[in-house]
Write a structure and sequence with these properties.
Order of helices and strands: EHEHHEHEHHEEEEHHHHHHHHHEEH
Helix content: 40-55%
Bound molecules: 5,6-dihydroxy-NADP, zinc ion
Radius of gyration: 20 Å
Distance between the termini: 36 Å
Number of strands: 10
Strand content: 5-15%
Structural class: alpha/beta
Strand order of the largest sheet: 1-8-5-4-2-3
Largest sheet: 6 strands, parallel
Length: 389
């Protein structure tokens, strides 16, 4: 295990009815005026926004709103939010939604206290030195942004989807009521499950020995898959929803990566798909992950082999290492199919994907090499896109 620092300051407030505590929680954190950021309609339709604003009114906390944030959030809404936050003099940002809403809130949080262009941080021209505090009411377990140090935004010009990572944007608190996730369409539940699994994969497939971290990572992955199957037949099963929601936070708050070199190639390869074709991030991962596994299994089999046995429950007796790994990868694909997701990029985007365009954009965003479990050249990434077709 490598040396590490683990900082996860988010207070998780978990369970039934907890959204009603948002006003009091904001008050405890010194919120004087709040910018509420939310999405395209689900939070209004379910009555959640009304509950949240009532809770703020009860505490006499004034607020303004930025609504209509879309999946794969874009820079234009961030600029709008920064202007609003400055004009209204807010001292706290509340995100009510999923990764797209939370990431927009995070980008506003760093941009509103910076005299330059917030995009400087996303292209690593400058490092953020301050941020407005952020709170979250989570409505979809997926991105793990409710406890993560990262935010992902797409610049409309050039469709550049890139991220920042800084502890400054870890939310102060995240309110997580699994009941709020029962209105999710099955497709979004499935995409969220795929995404949280991949957040563990990015850390699990590593060359650093770390038995304890691997052991609890495997336990979380197995449980996500078990609960995911339960939800396909009982979408309103509270305990399964609760496990999935908590797993989404554990998958990406850093716990599964402590003391390990992390990879993140699958995510970067996928981000080009969701940037260019505006598909759900989790749906893109269902195509890229098996292709990446297939590719790296030939170069560095150790963890793929372990994954096949310990997570996908492949019985190793009488099989070669290649057979074990192939079976594990096929079982993972079957799992995605069982959730109603495709593992074919062509099917996902509904046409022949432009691999040249994705490679060009990927190289612009990450340089000539990416990943660490198996460092990948752009030719390797091209091969992975082809395997995902
Ligand atoms: O806009 P509304 O109407 O709310 O609909 C949303 C949206 O269409 C819907 N939804 C959310 N909660 C709902 C609901 N529908 C019914 N009932 C509910 N309770 O779900 C759709 C997807 O929402 P979105 O926020 O886009 O999903 P997700 O949480 O998967 O976020 C995806 C974004 O996060 C980024 C992705 O790249 C993508 O842009 N990521 C952010 C990360 C981070 N900050 O740490 C890490 C991830 O790897 C990821 O890259
Ligand atoms: Zn992700």
């Amino acid at each position: 295990m490598d040396n590490f620092k683990f900082y996860s300051p988010t207070k998780f407030i978990f369970g039934k009815g907890t959204q009603k505590e948002v006003g009091k929680t904001l008050s405890n954190y010194g919120a004087v005026k709040v910018l509420i950021v939310y999405g395209g309609g689900s939070a209004e339709k379910s009555g959640l926004i009304q509950q949240v604003t009532e809770s703020l009114n009860n505490e006499k906390i004034p607020y303004c709103t930025l609504k209509g944030i879309k999946p794969n959030p874009t820079d234009d809404r961030v600029y709008e939010g920064i202007s609003l936050a400055i004009e209204e003099g807010v001292n706290f940002i509340l995100a009510v939604g999923g990764g797209s809403v939370i990431d927009t809130a995070k980008a506003i949080a760093v941009g509103a206290v910076y005299s330059g262009d917030f995009w400087d941080f996303f292209v690593h021209k400058e490092n953020p030195m301050a941020a407005l505090p952020i709170g979250v009411v989570l409505t979809i377990p997926a991105a793990g942004s409710e406890g993560s140090a990262s935010a992902v935004i797409t610049k409309i010009e050039g469709l550049q989807k890139v991220s920042i990572g800084t502890d400054l944007i870890r939310p102060r608190f995240a309110i997580m009521n699994p009941e709020l996730t029962m209105t999710l369409p099955d497709f979004q539940t499935a995409c969220g499950i795929t995404d949280m699994l991949c957040h563990i994969f990015e850390r699990y497939f590593s060359n650093t020995p770390a038995q304890l971290v691997n052991a609890y990572s495997e336990a979380i992955m197995r449980d996500i898959m078990d609960q995911a199957v339960t939800l396909t037949v009982q979408p309103d099963n509270y305990d399964a929803r609760a496990d999935i929601m908590w797993a989404g936070a554990l998958a990406h708050n850093g716990l599964c990566g402590v003391g390990k070199e992390e990879d993140w190639a699958t995510h970067r390869i996928e981000h080009e798909v969701s940037a260019i074709y505006d598909v759900a991030h989790g749906a893109g991962l269902a195509c890229i992950e098996p292709a990446w596994l297939k590719f790296v299994s030939k170069k560095n089999p150790d963890m793929v082999w372990r994954f096949a046995i310990n997570v996908m429950s492949v019985s190793p007796a009488g099989k070669t290492a290649d057979e074990i790994m192939d079976e594990g990868i096929e079982l993972l694909k079957d799992f995605y199919h069982g959730l109603g997701l495709t593992t074919s990029l062509r099917e996902l985007v509904g046409k022949e994907p432009d691999i040249d365009a994705m490679i060009k954009s990927l190289e612009r965003n990450v340089g000539p090499l990416l990943g660490s479990y198996v460092p990948l050249t752009m030719d390797d990434c091209r091969e992975i896109y082809k395997l995902a077709l």
